[in-house]
Amino acid sequence: MPEQQVGLLGGPMNKRALLFGAPGDAITLIVGNEANSTTFSIHKSLLCYTSTYFQNACKSERLKPEVKVIELPVDRPEVIRGMVYWMYYDELGITAKQFDHHTVFDGSRDIMDTKWGLWAQLYVLGDKYDLPQLRNHVMDVIVDQYIESNCQSPLGIVPYVYENTNSPDDPLRMFLVDVTKVFATRATIMANKNMFHAEFLFELTMAFADARRHLHFDDDDAADVDFCNRFHVHNIGDPICGDLRQPFVVDEPER
């Protein structure tokens, strides 16, 4: 017996049964400004079933029955296309051009036009239009593709994510902090140094503090931690210092 989902319209509802039966009228989403807009059609029942935001937008006092149009002037068509596709198929669709763009550090095009950028925008859209399951699916594909790309950290999306989320407990923020803390190389950090958001740097610093990653020195292991090479300045060929110099307390002469 197929699993029953709790629909936003009230009562148990299976989305496949909804679509297989009589999904009802369609709603037109007009995306973008008037000069350059794109339209998408989606069944009203599915739109309301998936999102409380759109359920409220479809109420009679906000949407006249004879119009059946919802305007989304500030959204990008490719992101709404991804949302509509997900609403029908429970999958995150992506074009081959976006998916095949593996390198996110070469500057060849806008990071937001890559797979990482699309997923970041869908993630933010999920919060904007009350689609928590969309956000969960986005996190799944980001983690999956991060692993598949041999831990290629998508740090290029940091500015967008931090400008469009609010909490340090946000899952995508925590993911970006975690992968940077554990896997980011010096080359990766240098390539993205101009993209680091102040809040990201703060949360990354706090993550290191929480992990209690700090150096501990004593006189016996100064050489073991390569203290001399890291913190002293010497000429080539000078011997390595094996001991830490101690302060000498001088007795003040009597006057």
From TrEMBL:
List the transmembrane segments. Answer: none
Q: Which Pfam families match?
A: BTB
Residue ranges of domain BTB in the record: 25-96
Q: InterPro entries this protein is in?
A: BTB/POZ_dom, SKP1/BTB/POZ_sf
Which protein are we looking at? BTB domain-containing protein
Q: What organism, scientifically named, is this protein from?
A: Rhynchosporium secalis (Barley scald fungus)
